[in-house]
Amino acid sequence: MAQRAPSEGQVLMQGGLFQSAATAHYAPREKMRIAYADPPYIGCARMHYKDHPDFAGEVDHLQLIQKLHSEFPDGWALSCSSPTLRELLNICASVGADDVRVAAWVKPWAVWKPGMSVAYAWEPVIWRGGRKKNKKEHTSRDWVSANAVMRRRNDPNQTKGTKPLEFCCWLFDLFNMRPEDELVDLFAGSGAVVEAWEWWKRQGRLPLGV
User: Do residues 82 and 123 touch, judged by C-beta distance below 8 A?
Assistant: First the structure.
């Protein structure tokens, strides 16, 4: 089902509820430059993306994490699969990114793989940085519950692993992002994250309680 941004309402999800910036009050802060990386997961590049026009083989995750750590000091996030989490955390530590945290995208509905007695129904998000909140701002959760996306109406390549709108809004909130910030999507894929960010900026979405 295609992911459509609400026209005027609010994004309601188990991870939070968002309102317009016009009704929120917050102190001005420096502009942030945040990176999000959603590469083909380790060992899955050819299986899932060999026919995608952007396919370039397996991603060098050591090089990727080095880039994230050195070029995006304001903050960054990296989506991955749970079986590879330990390997990626070791890479983070090896490049000096030892202050990362692990958040979770929990999928009430996900694709069940044949022969699996326990489904893979969550994905880790390794992240660090972001804008510190003051005492009047709400506390973000380190997880979001959102169904997996099967098809996007405006993605001719039907890119696997597309992130839903709820996930994207939660990610922006995790970093306490504002419309004046810059989001760098290193693996645009379906374009869903950039589309969600542009919608977020137009709406000026901020969490309730700010």
Answer: yes
Q: Which residue has the tokens 């660090």?
A: 128
Within-domain flag for 4:
no
Query: Is the distance from CB of 54 to CB of 91 less than 8 angstroms?
Result: no
Per cent of the chain over pLDDT 70 is 70
Question: With 70 as the cut, is the pLDDT of residue 195 above it?
Answer: yes
Q: What is the CATH number of the domain that holds 127?
A: 3.40.50.150
- Coil, strand or helix at 127: strand
Per-residue DSSP letter, 109 = S
What's the confidence (pLDDT) of residue 189? 72
Give the burial string for 61-85 (b: 16+ CB within 10 Å, else e). beebbbbbbeebebbbbbbbbeebe
Contact present, 124 and 102 (Cβ < 8 Å): yes
